[in-house]
Amino acid sequence: MHNENVYIFLGFMSTMNRRATIRDVAELAAVSVATVSRVLNGSELVTGITADSVRLAAERLGFRLNSIGRNLRSTKTQTIGVILPTLTHPVFADCLQAIEIKAADSGYGLVIATTSYDPANEERASELLLRNRVDGLILTVANANKSRLLEKLDREAKPYVLVYNQPTGAAKHRASVGVDNRLAAKQVTEHIIANGHRHLCMVSGPFAQSDRARARARGFADALEHANLPATAPLQVDFMRTDIRAQLFEVTSTRPTPTAFFCSSDQLAIRVMHSLRSLGLRIPEDVSVAGFDGITLGDWLTPALTTVVQPTNEIAESAFTLLKSIIDGERYLGSARLHHTLRTGGTVAKPPDHPAQSPKKGTL
Amino acid sequence: MHNENVYIFLGFMSTMNRRATIRDVAELAAVSVATVSRVLNGSELVTGITADSVRLAAERLGFRLNSIGRNLRSTKTQTIGVILPTLTHPVFADCLQAIEIKAADSGYGLVIATTSYDPANEERASELLLRNRVDGLILTVANANKSRLLEKLDREAKPYVLVYNQPTGAAKHRASVGVDNRLAAKQVTEHIIANGHRHLCMVSGPFAQSDRARARARGFADALEHANLPATAPLQVDFMRTDIRAQLFEVTSTRPTPTAFFCSSDQLAIRVMHSLRSLGLRIPEDVSVAGFDGITLGDWLTPALTTVVQPTNEIAESAFTLLKSIIDGERYLGSARLHHTLRTGGTVAKPPDHPAQSPKKGTL
DNA sequence: ATGAAAGCGCTAACAT
DNA sequence: ATGTTAGCGCTTTCAT
Fold first, then answer.
1. Which nucleotide minimizes the distance between its C1' and the CA of B70?
2. Which of B40, B61, B68 would you mutate first to test chain A, the one with the most A CBs within 10 A?
3. Is A169 in the same domain as A317?
4. Interface-testing mutation among A100, A115, A152, with chain B (most B C-beta atoms within 10 A)
5. Residue A304: inside a domain, yes or no?
6. How many domains does chain A have?
7. Assessment of whether the complete model's pTM goes beyond 0.85
8. Residue B286 has what DSSP assignment?
9. Is the CB of B50 under 7 A from strand C?
10. Distance (Å, rounded) from C-alpha A230 to C-alpha B248?
11. B222-269 residue pLDDT tens
């Protein structure tokens, strides 16, 4: 019927250096823009026939909805922002991947920013996303109890859900999804102790960068106390920036020599094992090592890494679902403490009968 | 001077459930919206005094620029889209991280989507980003020579830069950044051969999902041919979905037994090593393994993984810079073939004097 | 140096 | 069931 017009328009549009708008579609389909909008949004109010002609016109013109126009008008963007410390750590990368799948599934887009564990970047990152008017945020901050960014989000009543963070005390109202870090850390530590170890050392990332690390250190302390073992201060290492071999040499050559190391993350555990081996120590014959996170890769190592598994996909999905209900106006929603599991690999075993051989000085 | 008004407005705005707009700022500063816009965009045309009063008003009102309004008007979004197969693979996660840092640095936002290596998802993902009118795209597709998505981008003259993909032939015009996969693969293979191996097996991800894998397989074949060794077909494994142990058992129990494995990625190499070890083979005493990518983690393994290192950060930065110049209107820009390096770890050594011991049947 | 006014593409009242 | 119209927040001529 409109065939002639169609071709005229096609030629017209392809000549123009401008994308077809809803208006062009309306014109070609000989309906109003409102009708086109309704069809685009799947409104039931439109007759099948007109709807078809609109869809045809849209296709002919290579029409693609301009989300910006829609967003400006509807003050919703169908986009959520994700702020994470880094993607270099598999825990966060895998989490983001899971969020992306879930979001895409629900028709949401994702805009992301990373902070390199620096609260100053949290500020910058959030402003970028907020200017883009994301509907809500999924994020991991350095400290969920004291965070300028979270105060801002609270003040502005911007929906957000924390992942991995575990706010406590006055910050308990903040929506979060993750495992019970303290309890989980206590349990791995107990597992190590159950293997017969009496001299344990915790190796942790910088406390200032991670409330998780602090919570895990408390769980570590809990287990020691419960087993009547003397408390030992965690060794804090900035393993992203510095070589940890020297610090480990220090520890392994001080009496009483630790026979087991609990690391605050799997990534750190892998680095620690590497350093220990380079100091001439075998794992687990001379020294045991456990991690935290449950990254897939830990399972492919030989021996496989003993660790606490956080259910990454569940965390991501749960966070997204929770965020969406907050966005949709439900308030006073609780946080989710998800189940963790202990994965016993081969890196934790009985301590050696004789005190660990003193490490070779090697190339230190 | 305007102190009284200021407080009235402050109370006003905080009572309102609406963010301050440029108009509110203009009113409070007693200037026009145009002036406010100029100040916000750092125009030189505004007097210092008026600029200050605008900035003051903006701060008082807690004004935050609405990018959506700006984007709609200026038809630029200062946002780039990133489409990658997965973030579960450190190569892509690290690349995305590097892109994010570079983009943030240049005031660009990032919207992302993943495809799970499925071209159908490439379509979905790209539509999401294009509806959001990203200024350009950085992406890795399954096949850079034959891609519906890339044809669409070409047709629409949408700026994009491929990463890791290496288009050839008729697709050579497509902007891309990465290493010479074929050459690099040839060189690792030569390194393996130089260690004395005569029976090599390549283990690869599915060719259909990755033109890189295909290019690397060609490099592998090049090296075999150059050394007058018989060509062997790569073992294609879908290691994300299936257990590869059975397939490796097959290979290691067929004569001539391979003494070395070249894997199309580090992640795959790690899985292969795990499977080989579970078959009772020691690395590198019984069998050598090499990877491709140079993920950081390979260095922390014991022994460290022998592999080709792709310069992830340079790839990301180079891709962003190239994309930006395309966006800024420069045409006919070449692609970048970046340098790769061979990282010799401990996983490749001389083949055993006697043919590799036949693998234990174990729990198979 | 600053202002007035148009309009980017879309949705949502309201009207019919 | 469909059309008319106002306007979301901003930038950008064009005036002055």
1. D10
2. B68
3. yes
4. A100
5. yes
6. 3
7. yes
8. T
9. yes
10. 48
11. 999 999 999 999 999 987 777 888 888 888 888 889 999 999 999 999
